[in-house]
Amino acid sequence: MADRMYDVCIIGAGMWGSAAAYHTCLVPDTKVCLIGPEEPTSSQEFNSRAIHGAYYDEVRVTRTNMGSVICSELSKRSHEGFDKLEKNTGISFYTECNNVNFGPVKSQYITDCKRTSELLQTEHVLLTGDQLTQKFPYLNMALTLGSNIECILQLSKCGLVNPRKLVAAQKTAADLHGCDIFNTTVDQITEKYHTPSVGKILEVVTEDGQIIRSRKVLICTGVFTLSKPLLPSHLLPDMKLVPTQTLRIELSKENVDNMRDMPSICSFTREDNQRDGYICPPVIYPDGKTYLKIGHGRLRYLKSEEVAEWYRSDGDPEVTEKLMGMMKRFFPGLIPISTHTDTCAVTVTRTDMPYVDMVTPEIGVAIGDNGGGAKFCYEIGRMAAKMIAKGCWDYDLPAREFEVRFKEPKQ
Fold first, then answer.
1. Could you give the CA distance from residue 134 to residue 150 in angstroms, rounded to a whole number?
2. Please, are residues 188 and 228 in contact by the beta-carbon 8 Å criterion?
3. Domain 5-56+164-238+350-402, CATH
4. Which among 80, 56, 385 has a CA at the least distance from the CA of 220?
5. pLDDT tens for each residue of 295-332
6. Nearest-CA neighbor of 186 among 366, 54, 9?
7. How far is CA 253 from CA 239, 290, 331, 337, 339, in A?
8. Which of 94, 106, 104, 108 is nearest to 66 (CA)?
9. Based on the number of CB atoms within 10 Å of its own CB, is 147 exposed (0-12), middle (13-18) or buried (19 or more)?
10. pLDDT at 1 (0 to 100)
């Protein structure tokens, strides 16, 4: 397969790359390949990896009442595609679940969420902290946060996504539509000129020595975008790499039974209106145990060369202590069977919006999740697919909202 000429080569086989591969395969007369390593199957393989995926997990929150109307619309469109994707692949990855956003009364973020809910006609109710505690007695919302909070309980178009299964479904859908999938990483992209009738060809060189030729390349490599020479040195996206950390709390059967109606919870009590924490309801993990997941702590920025080491680490003890404190405040009296920390990383763009843009006539990017990649990855993949297939913007939302910003060149 490596000698085959492709119309589009997609680098990065995570949530965004696999979605883009599937949607690009739907473009008529387009030969597509997807390059990216599968999740490691052993701790030895995991610890030897230089590239990891943000989808190595069992649960992410998806909702459509965010502060940004555009991001909420993207999440809504992704949600509308889940059922078809599950039916076409036979892989179930989505579970309906209510969601709660809360923050100070009349805060900007909660005001924006109300507006978004109304604009997108999302079914929701407004509650005080006391009312939420009455509805979900195991949640200590009022005592934890005081009376000066308001909550938006979203009742539709929200739920939980299993990112592992979502990626599997998107890759399966791409494969069913003729996508060639290479389980490897990319070392570099080089430009080669051929005859005028063929035009410029890109050569994608993989870690295992394969050379894959393509007319266009779409880069969907998340926090690892700057780890390899994938883009011209003067066209490096301006985005910060942020380490994140979650706490998994093993629950007893009694705890699980008591929390069966639990919504996902997102806290926005910071003055800058950024999320300061979230809680996922109980989910069964591959080890057969049921965990409550609390996230995520952020302390600092990472350099590109530090990302893989962070993935392999046990996290930061200070963040673990903070997350344990959240557990004790929201679930007083809860005694975990065990606790575990998991690490990940997100990209934060200068605009707080995803970068979906052509950086050269032949190379496009779909990067910059800003901590919300799972919510709208399916639709970001469709957006990016339309763009890379045409070589320019081809979507009904304004291109300027997704325009990539570049780092200032060093003097």
1. 14
2. yes
3. 3.50.50.60
4. 385
5. 976 668 999 999 999 999 999 999 999 899 889 888 88
6. 9
7. 43, 8, 16, 10, 16
8. 108
9. exposed
10. 46
Each as own residue / partner, the long-range contacts of residues 91-95 (CB below 8 Å, 24 or more positions apart, any chain) are 91/165, 91/168, 91/169, 91/172, 92/165, 93/161, 93/162, 93/163, 93/165, 93/166, 93/168, 93/169, 94/62, 94/159, 94/160, 94/161, 94/162, 94/166, 95/159, 95/160, 95/162
Tokens of 54: 């943000």
Backbone angles phi, psi at 16, to 5 degrees: -80, -45
The proportion of the chain whose per-residue pLDDT surpasses 70, expressed as a percent, equals 93
CA-based nearest residue to 12, from 183, 201, 213, 229? 183
Q: Is 0.85 surpassed by the pTM of this model?
A: yes
Q: Which two tokens stand for residue 314?
A: 């046990």
